C-alpha cells in the first residue's frame, strides 16, 4: 500500500523500520547486503559487486536498462576498483546479481588466435576494428558484447576476444579476406596524360622504397612482403607506367601518380635588347722630313713620312707604283686623306681623317617553355677565327681555324610560383663583330652578357640591366717647343680625338600560359602581325621584310579552323 502512495520502508541496523519517500531511497541509509544476507522481497538493500573480467563502466548501462521503469533502485560503477554499487529492492538486485555472474566470465574463456597466410595482420585488424566500430555506433550496443581484435606483427596473427557469435562472424570474414591475389590482379597499367613516364619511374621507385622502410617489420619473416615485389616499368611508346604491386601499394602509388600527372603551366618569355652606339673621331697632323737633318715623324698616324718619301722617290725613278714600292702596303692600308710635298732634300706630309660611327641594335627574341624547363634561343652566325698556324716540312702553311657563334642568345628557366609570379633564371648574350677594328690578329668581338634571376608578375615588363657608357680620348704628339708655338705650332703637332657613347638596356616580360585558349590567343596575335607586315610590303607601304621578290601571304584562316578533338584511350 505504501508503494502506491510513493513511500518505501527501510530496515535500519538496529532492527527498526523507517518509512521514507521512494524518491529519497537512494540517499537514505539502508541495509548493506551480501551473499549471506541478500535480502528478500521488496526490502531495500545496497549491494557492492566486484567484477573480475568485465569493465564495470561497460556493464553498468546494461544493468540500468534491466531495472523496472518505476523502480526506486540505481546502478553506479566505481572504475578504480572495478566494482558495481547496486541499490534497490532485494528481488530486483538478486536478479541483477545472477546476470552479473553469467556475464562476468568473458575474457579468459573466449579468446581465439588465427594465423594469416596471405593477408597482413595489421591491415586486417584495422579493417575489422573499423567495421565493428561502425556497427556498434549504429546499433548502440554495449562494448562488452563486441569482439576485440589485436594484430601480432611478429607472427602475422590476429588475437580475437569476444562472444562466440561475434568470433564466428569474424572468422567467416577472415576466410574470405585471407586469400592469395592473382598475379594479373597485382599488375596495372597507368596511361599518363601530361607527365613523361620515364621521369616518373625514379620518383615512384623512391616512394615505394619509403613505403618499404615504413612497413619493414609489418610482415612475418616466413612470408614474402608485398613491398619487396614492387616493380615499376615505363613504356615510352605509349607513355605509360606498368606497376606490379599488391593492392595497398597500388592505391598509394596511384594517388602519387594522380598528383604528378597534371598539366604544367607554360611561360612565354619576351625579351627586348636595345643598344645605341655613337662615335666620332678626328685625326690631324703634319710631318716634316729633311734628307740631311732628319724628320718629325708620328708613327701612330699609320702613314710615316719617311716611307711616303721613299715611295715618291721610287715612283719618280721607275715611273709607276708596284708592289715592291715601299708605299704600296702603307697606302693600301691607310684610311683618310694624305697630301704631301717632296722636292729635293725636303718633304712634308699632311694627314687628316674624320670618322663618324653609328650603330643601332634592336633585338626582340621570344620563346615558350614549360614550367621548370630550360629553353634556349640562338640566332646568329659562325665566324671563323684563326687559332693557330704551322709550317710543314714542304713549306706549306697549315692554319687551325675555330668558329665562334655571334648573334643573339637567350637561355631561360621559368618557375611558376603560387599566384601569378614567375621566377626567371636568365642567361642573355648579344654579340657581334667589331667592323671598326683593324687588328691583324683576327676579328674583334663585341659581347654583352647578362646572367640573372628575377621574380616578375605575369604580363609585367621589367628591366634586367643596362649600361650607359660615355668614352672620350684625346691624344697629342708634338715636337718640343715648336709644337707649343701659337698658330705655327699646329704644323709640328699630331692630334687624335675620339669620343663614343653607348646606351644598352635589356627588358623582359613573362606571360603565364595555363590553358589552350591563352596559348592560341598569343599565337594568333603574333601570326596576324607578321601577316600584316607581309601584306604591307606587297602593297608597297612597308619594307619590313627583306627581299625584292613577292612572297606568298600567310593564310588568313589558320587560327579560325579548329583541329579535331583527340581520341581517348
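Sequence proposed for the structure above (569 residues):
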Amino acid at each position: 500500500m505504501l508503494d502506491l502512495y510513493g513511500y518505501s520502508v527501510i530496515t535500519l541496523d538496529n532492527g527498526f523500520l523507517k518509512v521514507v519517500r521512494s524518491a529519497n531511497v537512494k540517499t537514505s541509509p539502508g541495509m548493506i547486503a551480501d551473499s549471506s544476507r541478500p535480502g528478500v522481497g521488496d526490502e531495500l538493500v545496497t549491494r557492492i559487486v566486484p567484477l573480475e573480467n568485465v569493465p564495470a563502466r561497460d556493464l553498468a548501462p546494461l544493468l540500468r536498462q534491466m531495472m523496472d521503469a518505476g523502480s526506486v533502485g540505481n546502478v553506479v560503477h566505481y572504475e578504480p576498483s572495478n566494482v558495481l554499487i547496486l541499490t534497490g529492492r532485494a528481488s530486483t538486485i538478486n536478479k541483477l546479481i545472477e546476470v552479473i555472474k553469467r556475464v562476468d566470465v568473458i575474457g579468459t574463456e573466449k579468446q581465439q588466435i588465427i594465423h594469416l597466410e596471405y593477408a597482413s595482420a595489421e591491415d586486417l585488424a584495422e579493417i575489422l576494428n573499423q567495421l565493428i566500430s561502425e556497427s556498434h555506433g549504429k546499433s548502440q550496443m554495449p562494448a562488452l558484447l563486441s569482439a576485440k581484435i589485436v594484430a601480432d606483427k611478429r607472427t602475422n596473427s590476429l588475437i580475437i576476444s569476444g562472444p562466440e557469435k561475434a568470433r564466428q562472424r569474424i572468422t567467416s570474414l577472415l576466410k574470405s579476406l585471407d586469400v592469395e591475389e592473382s598475379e594479373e590482379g597485382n599488375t596495372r597499367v597507368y596511361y599518363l596524360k601530361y607527365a613523361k613516364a620515364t621521369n616518373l619511374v625514379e620518383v615512384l621507385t623512391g616512394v615505394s622504397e619509403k613505403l618499404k622502410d615504413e612497413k619493414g617489420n609489418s610482415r612475418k619473416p616466413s612470408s614474402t612482403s608485398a613491398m619487396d615485389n614492387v616493380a615499376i616499368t615505363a613504356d615510352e611508346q605509349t607513355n605509360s607506367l606498368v606497376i606490379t604491386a599488391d593492392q595497398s601499394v597500388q592505391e598509394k602509388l596511384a594517388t602519387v601518380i594522380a598528383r604528378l600527372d597534371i598539366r604544367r603551366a607554360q611561360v612565354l618569355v619576351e625579351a627586348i635588347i636595345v643598344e645605341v652606339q655613337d662615335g666620332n673621331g678626328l685625326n690631324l697632323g703634319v710631318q716634316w722630313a729633311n734628307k740631311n737633318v732628319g724628320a718629325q715623324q708620328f708613327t701612330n698616324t699609320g702613314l710615316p713620312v719617311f716611307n711616303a718619301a721613299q715611295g715618291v722617290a721610287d715612283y719618280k725613278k721607275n715611273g709607276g707604283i708596284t708592289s715592291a714600292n715601299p708605299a704600296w702596303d702603307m697606302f693600301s692600308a691607310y684610311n683618310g686623306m694624305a697630301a704631301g710635298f717632296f722636292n729635293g732634300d725636303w718633304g712634308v706630309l699632311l694627314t687628316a681623317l674624320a670618322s663618324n660611327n653609328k650603330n643601332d641594335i634592336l633585338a626582340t627574341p621570344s620563346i615558350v617553355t614549360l614550367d621548370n624547363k630550360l629553353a634556349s634561343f640562338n640566332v646568329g652566325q659562325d665566324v671563323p677565327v684563326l687559332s693557330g698556324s704551322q709550317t710543314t716540312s714542304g713549306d706549306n702553311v697549315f692554319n687551325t681555324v675555330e668558329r665562334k657563334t655571334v648573334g643573339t642568345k637567350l637561355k631561360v628557366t621559368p618557375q611558376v610560383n603560387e599566384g601569378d609570379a614567375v621566377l626567371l633564371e636568365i642567361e642573355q648574350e648579344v654579340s657581334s663583330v667589331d667592323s671598326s677594328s683593324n687588328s691583324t690578329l683576327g676579328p674583334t668581338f663585341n659581347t654583352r652578357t647578362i646572367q640573372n634571376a628575377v621574380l616578375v608578375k605575369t604580363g609585367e615588363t621589367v628591366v634586367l640591366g643596362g649600361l650607359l657608357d660615355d668614352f672620350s680620348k684625346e691624344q697629342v704628339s708634338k715636337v718640343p717647343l715648336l709644337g707649343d708655338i701659337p698658330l705655327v705650332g699646329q704644323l709640328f703637332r699630331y692630334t687624335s680625338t675620339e669620343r663614343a657613347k653607348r646606351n644598352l638596356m635589356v627588358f623582359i616580360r613573362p606571360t603565364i600560359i595555363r590553358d589552350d585558349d591563352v596559348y592560341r590567343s598569343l599565337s594568333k596575335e603574333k601570326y596576324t602581325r607578321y601577316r600584316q607586315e607581309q601584306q604591307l610590303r606587297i602593297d608597297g607601304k612597308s619594307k619590313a621584310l627583306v627581299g625584292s621578290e613577292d612572297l606568298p601571304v600567310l593564310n588568313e584562316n589558320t587560327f579560325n579552323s579548329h583541329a579535331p578533338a583527340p581520341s581517348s584511350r
